[in-house]
């Protein structure tokens, strides 16, 4: 029997007790892995152990896949109506709503983001997304196609791999990643499962080995909501074992992944080499944020700061390359520096804290090595550049200036509170520099000239462009990357396409061949 992790929080911002089962979640039960090995879950604020969880193996992935298939064939998929699935998703949202504080406390402890941010942004947005897809569940339909009077033709948007292919397993597999580097564990969990369940798929999901606790708490919420056994299965484990077993599994018919571009490439290769399962990938970014001379300067400083420091800069969409037109460059830099220095770093459960630790030692070391490379390459550390304190993984908000286009800190995703501020002269110059990247996830444009702002938004090669704002997400609006930032879109009605297969049905209305 797997254990339960119990923690009593007695902090300035949250008092309460949280329980989390530490086993794998298969068929709505917490179970031990087939091996007895475990994974240590560490607290990034102290570097100390929080708890240990079961480590799954490829054998456990097989068991989870069988459970998902059984659920698909008996209680989910074409055996439920969209309205029933929508009701269950609404119940899930209601229970999550009641567990806001608990989910936020776990997220802050495990991931390092502040409790208030976890509660008011991550958990809140996760609930919005579940409700949004609950609304879609009974509105998934195809088209009636006019051909000729002797024929009735229509399409159905079915869960992936179903009717007529019953000999094939019919479930959806997801690897949920991110999070290993201080991302949005609970939010990503929901971005994956909500559209998949709304459209009738069943799921096997691997959370990050670094931040698995909210995924495990969500499993109890799934039980409580009455979602049938086997519809969502969670296997906690490492990427090169469990992740690899999932991406190369012959019986999994689709995979969705959030994580780095390097691992995304491995997943796509494994999918291609196994059963050619379709892949959606939400990968990294090195996102330009463009500020023209005519921008509302104070507003641009606020949003640029939010753009890079949101979630400690550990965000795929972080506005980490800030391009400022020469007329306001000095003024912008002065105000942006003030703002960066004013960020209050500390324990995620402290009062009035803006930034906690990075989510793991590995990520901390990675960011610090980027800062070192910037210094070695000759860039100027305008502010920050150091570790804060000697315990936990805290890093000062850092701004580099005097950078060159070929420096690592300009080209590569750092995934931390580190930006480069670059001067530009005119629109053509900044569009060229902004597009000089193999990524294409997000961008920002600040200008009070609406023609220029829209023209620039259209010329930037990115899946999302925010004009006079940044990091402004809505459940209705698709999110995803151009180029090596990914394949496919999450959120909005666009995500539904990832989770349905289109079937054309031709009905002969009396036409004979002879
Ligand atoms: P990561 O790629 O290091 O790890 C992601 C997941 O992949 C983990 O669960 C890991 O266990 C698993 N994994 C590792 N090797 C694997 C393999 N061989 N096969 C299958 N799975 C394997 O990423 P991370 O550090 O957790 O997250 C940070 C990255 O995620 C950043 O690059 C960030 O930009 C990106 N991200 C993108 C989005 C988006 O929506 N585009 C959102 C969040 C994060």
UniProtKB/TrEMBL annotation:
<comment type="similarity">
    <text>Belongs to the aldehyde dehydrogenase family.</text>
</comment>
<dbReference type="InterPro" id="IPR016161">
    <property type="entry name" value="Ald_DH/histidinol_DH"/>
</dbReference>
<dbReference type="InterPro" id="IPR015590">
    <property type="entry name" value="Aldehyde_DH_dom"/>
</dbReference>
<dbReference type="InterPro" id="IPR016162">
    <property type="entry name" value="Ald_DH_N"/>
</dbReference>
<dbReference type="GO" id="GO:0019413">
    <property type="term" value="P:acetate biosynthetic process"/>
</dbReference>
<feature type="active site">
    <location>
        <position position="282"/>
    </location>
</feature>
<dbReference type="GO" id="GO:0004030">
    <property type="term" value="F:aldehyde dehydrogenase [NAD(P)+] activity"/>
</dbReference>
<dbReference type="Pfam" id="PF00171">
    <property type="entry name" value="Aldedh"/>
</dbReference>
<feature type="domain" description="Aldehyde dehydrogenase">
    <location>
        <begin position="30"/>
        <end position="505"/>
    </location>
</feature>
<dbReference type="InterPro" id="IPR016163">
    <property type="entry name" value="Ald_DH_C"/>
</dbReference>
<dbReference type="InterPro" id="IPR029510">
    <property type="entry name" value="Ald_DH_CS_GLU"/>
</dbReference>
<protein>
    <submittedName>
        <fullName>Aldehyde dehydrogenase</fullName>
    </submittedName>
</protein>
<keyword id="KW-0560">Oxidoreductase</keyword>
């Amino acid at each position: 029997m797997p254990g339960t992790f119990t923690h009593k929080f007695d902090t300035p911002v949250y008092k309460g007790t949280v329980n989390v089962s530490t086993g794998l979640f298969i068929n709505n039960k917490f179970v031990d892995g087939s091996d007895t090995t475990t994974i240590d879950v560490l607290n990034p604020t102290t570097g100390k152990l929080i708890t240990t969880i079961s480590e799954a193996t490829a054998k456990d992935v097989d068991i989870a896949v069988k459970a998902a298939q059984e659920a698909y064939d008996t209680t989910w998929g074409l055996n439920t109506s969209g309205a029933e699935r929508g009701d269950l998703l609404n119940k899930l949202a209601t229970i999550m709503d009641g567990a806001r504080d608990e989910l936020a406390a776990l997220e802050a402890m495990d991931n390092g983001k502040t409790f208030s941010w976890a509660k008011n942004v991550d958990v809140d947005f996760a609930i919005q997304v579940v409700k949004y897809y609950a609304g879609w569940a009974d509105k998934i339909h195809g088209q009636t196609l006019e051909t000729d009077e002797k024929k009735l033709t229509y399409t159905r948007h079915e869960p992936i791999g179903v009717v007529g292919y019953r000999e094939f397993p019919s479930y959806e597999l997801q690897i949920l990643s991110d999070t290993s580097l201080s991302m949005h564990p609970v939010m990503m969990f929901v971005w994956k499962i909500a559209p998949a369940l709304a459209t009738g798929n069943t799921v096997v999901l691997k959370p990050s080995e670094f931040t698995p606790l909210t995924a495990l708490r969500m499993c109890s919420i799934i039980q409580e909501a009455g979602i049938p056994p086997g519809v969502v299965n969670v296997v906690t484990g490492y990427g090169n074992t469990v992740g690899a077993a999932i991406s190369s599994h012959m019986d999994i018919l689709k995979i969705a992944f959030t994580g780095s571009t390097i691992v995304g490439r491995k997943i796509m290769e494994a999918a291609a080499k196994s059963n050619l399962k379709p892949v959606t990938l939400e990968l990294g970014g090195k996102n330009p944020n463009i500020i023209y001379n005519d921008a509302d300067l104070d507003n641009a400083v606020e949003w640029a700061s939010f753009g890079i420091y949101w979630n400690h800069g550990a965000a795929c969409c972080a506005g980490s390359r800030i391009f400022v037109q020469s007329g306001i460059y000095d003024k912008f830099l002065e105000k942006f520096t003030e703002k960066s220095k004013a960020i209050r770093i500390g324990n995620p459960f402290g009062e009035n804290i803006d930034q906690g630790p990075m989510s793991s030692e590995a990520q901390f070391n990675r960011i610090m090595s980027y800062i070192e490379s910037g210094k070695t390459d000759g860039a100027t550390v305008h502010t920050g550049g150091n570790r804060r304190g000697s315990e936990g993984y805290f890093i000062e908000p850092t701004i580099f200036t005097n950078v060159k286009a070929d420096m690592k800190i300009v080209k590569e995703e750092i995934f931390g509170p580190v930006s480069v501020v670059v001067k530009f002269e005119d629109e053509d110059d900044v569009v060229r520099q902004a597009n000089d990247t193999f990524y294409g996830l997000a961008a920002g444009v600040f200008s009070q000239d609406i023609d220029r702002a829209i023209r620039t938004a259209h010329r930037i090669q990115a899946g999302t462009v925010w004009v006079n704002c940044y990091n402004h997400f809505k459940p209705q609006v698709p999110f995803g990357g151009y180029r090596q930032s990914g394949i496919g879109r999450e959120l909005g009605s666009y995500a539904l396409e990832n989770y349905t297969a289109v079937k054309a049905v031709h009905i002969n209305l009396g036409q004979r061949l002879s």
